[in-house]
């Protein structure tokens, strides 16, 4: 795979292979291949989980990390992203893991088709895609249920600003899940109708298999919307309260990509509750990212055989 920028570019078979490979790494059924490669992690937007879990995955693969800090790099002097990446390619960097606020930042770079631009891994583009988060979410769901077909999955919250929602809605629909959405109606992008249905959060909550909560992205809200926002009102109307948690079936799982606004999207004490997989998602992220990075060194995503 030359670049990893949008999970929906892959076939269902390739996605399933990435999921099963990630789980095989986690369960010790497949050893992590040691590789001599050079990688730079460029985060133009803040990150804790994605940045550190890519670093952990790279370390486990034996990749050397070349330190480039966007905040102190020559992008601050006006150097373009393209020239920054060509510079890194020229000095021998094989791959760049990059997060940027511009949607589809990777499209013009791939279109350049320059051999100087290293392999690209999208660690999040604006409100576009978050494919490595999506893979670890799929891995977590598959780890729990062993399939996607027919699972009732509701994605709740700030859908219009969430790259996690956009990545997951499309892919879960393709994999046969019954996807529904809830949250403030004004944060519902109508093009999501093609992936599932908009519902009130409480409608059919007892039958859900997965309740996926989204962070309210204050940094992407208009100033006036931030001023008007009430944490208490949001929590009561759209959050996972104790009452809603108790209505979920025993086998249901609760997910959130994090960071969590405790007491807003989810009651503080429920972040670590039995049905929550929030910290499992983070642990799974390392293995999902090992699978992604390892696949960059292959022409295609090869099926693995596990004895
Ligand atoms: N889930 C996620 O992308 O978290 P970070 O912003 O901390 O990387």
Helix content: 25-40%
What is the domain tally? Answer: 2
Q: What order do the helices and strands follow?
A: HEHEHEHEHEHEEEHHHEH
Number of helices: 10
Rounded mean pLDDT is 95
Structural class: alpha/beta
What is the number of E strands?
9
Radius of gyration: 19 Å
Keywords: Pyrimidine biosynthesis, Transferase
Function: Catalyzes the condensation of carbamoyl phosphate and aspartate to form carbamoyl aspartate and inorganic phosphate, the committed step in the de novo pyrimidine nucleotide biosynthesis pathway.
EC number: 2.1.3.2
Family: Belongs to the aspartate/ornithine carbamoyltransferase superfamily. ATCase family.
Written overview of the protein:
- With 307 residues, this protein is of the alpha/beta class.
- The chain folds into two domains: 7-129 and 283-295, Aspartate/ornithine carbamoyltransferase (Rossmann fold, 3-Layer(aba) Sandwich); 131-282, Aspartate/ornithine carbamoyltransferase (Rossmann fold, 3-Layer(aba) Sandwich), CATH 3.40.50.
- Helices cover 36% and strands 13% of the residues.
- It is built from ten helices and nine strands.
- The chain has helices at 12-26, 49-61, 81-90, 106-112, 131-145, 163-174, 223-228, 231-238, 242-247, 278-295, and strands spanning 38-43, 64-65, 95-100, 119-125, 152-156, 178-182, 197-198, 210-213, 253-255.
- The strands form two sheets. It has a five-stranded parallel sheet, with helices on one face.
- Helix 4 (106-112) links the parallel strand 3 (95-100) and strand 4 (119-125).
- The longest helix is centred in the last third of the chain and has 18 residues, at 278-295.
- The protein is globular, with a radius of gyration of 19 Å.
- The site of phosphoric acid mono(formamide)ester has 9 residues, from helix 2.
């Amino acid at each position: 795979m030359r670049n990893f920028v949008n999970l929906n570019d892959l076939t269902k078979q390739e996605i399933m292979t990435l999921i099963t490979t990630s789980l095989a790494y986690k369960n010790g059924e497949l050893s992590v291949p040691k590789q001599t490669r050079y990688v730079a992690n460029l985060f133009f937007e803040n990150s804790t989980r994605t940045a550190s879990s890519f670093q952990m995955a790279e370390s486990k693969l034996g990749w050397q990390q070349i330190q480039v800090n966007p905040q102190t790099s020559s992008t601050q002097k006006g150097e373009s992203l393209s020239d920054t990446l060509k510079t890194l390619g020229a000095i021998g960097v094989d791959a760049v893991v990059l997060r940027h606020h511009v949607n589809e930042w990777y499209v013009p770079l791939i279109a350049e088709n320059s051999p100087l631009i290293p392999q690209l891994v999208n660690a999040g583009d604006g409100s576009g895609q978050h494919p490595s988060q999506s893979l670890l979410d799929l891995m977590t769901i598959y780890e729990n249920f062993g399939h996607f077909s027919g699972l009732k999955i509701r994605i709740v919250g700030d859908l219009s600003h969430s790259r996690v929602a956009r990545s997951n809605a499309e892919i879960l629909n393709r994999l046969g899940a019954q996807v529904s959405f809830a949250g403030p109606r004004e944060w519902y992008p109508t093009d999501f109708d093609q992936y599932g249905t908009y519902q009130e959060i409480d409608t059919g909550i007892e039958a859900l298999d997965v309740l996926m909560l989204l962070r309210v992205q204050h940094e992407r809200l208009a100033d006036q919307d931030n001023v008007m926002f009430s944490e208490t009102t949001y929590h009561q109307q759209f959050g996972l309260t104790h009452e809603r948690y108790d209505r979920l079936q025993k086998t249901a799982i609760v997910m959130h990509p994090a960071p969590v606004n405790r007491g807003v999207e989810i009651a503080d004490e429920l972040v670590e509750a039995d049905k929550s997989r929030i910290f499992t998602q983070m642990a799974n992220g390392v293995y999902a990212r090992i699978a992604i990075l390892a696949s960059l060194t292959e022409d295609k995503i090869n099926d693995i055989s596990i004895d």
